[in-house]
Amino acid sequence: MARPTVSVWIITYNHEKYIAQTLDSVLMQRTDFDFEIVIGEDCSRDGTRAILKRYEAEYPDKFNIIYHETNVGAMRNAYEFALPACKGKYIACLEGDDYWTDCYKLQKQFEALENNPEYSMCFHNAKVIYQNLDKPSYLLNKVDQKKILYFDDLVERWQIATASMFFRNYDFKLPDWFYNQYNGDMALQFILIDNGPFLYLEDLMSVYRLHDTGISSTKITSQITMITNIINLLDLVNDFYSQKYNDSIQKAKAELNAVMLRVKVRTRFPLLQTLRLSVKKSLTFVSDKL
Fold first, then answer.
1. Which residue range or ranges hold the Glycosyltransferase 2-like domain (predicted)?
2. Whole-angstrom Cα distance, residue 28 to residue 103?
3. Which residue among 38, 137, 231, 235 sits deepest, i.e. has the most Cβ atoms within 10 Å of its Cβ?
4. Whole-model pTM above 0.85?
């Protein structure tokens, strides 16, 4: 069998409500090249597996699904099993609760990297929605988003949705510490960028969900855990690159520690936080009157 041009790399666990929409968004892609769909199914306890089998039966030549008989965890599912099974020249990321919205997404990103060999990855804008919360959606990337990202840009903030990642399938070996990370996609970005900068496409082509059953969460405890994990990851990345980017990493760590302190203050002293916001609102009102 000829090597596919693109491997669509998906991991899923308990995504019964969302996986069909995810797969349909892949199958709607219009390309002038072949692509495969590689899925790591991590022994879901709901109907996710049954849905996958239905799609697999309908498109037997399109899917390569790894069914785990026991739950192996998100990191092992993604990087020990599913990623190595991807045979394409390029790899497009997608998680089982997110979806693509542009039928030419793969074609656009393929052409972007084919025409610009100096970049190791390209990404695009994404809409972030709160699945179980009454909060408005927003665009992850603003109008001032940098078009080219280097390492120093990467540590500044979260600016790459997983479902927007499209990168060259390098024969790279992941470091041992990688498999213990909570933020797998972020860790992967730090590894990939050593092969070349990232190119940003302005097109809005995917939706990223925030909800209680996903990896991401808006709860305070989850925010603190996430920040702590990123700080630990930055230390590992700093050692991995032999302190090459130490200044940028230390600056990012200082900013993350400041954010974590503010989150902890809001948690421990909610009345103080309410008072601070009330004073800020009053000052703004007075300023507007002046």
1. 7-170
2. 6
3. 38
4. yes
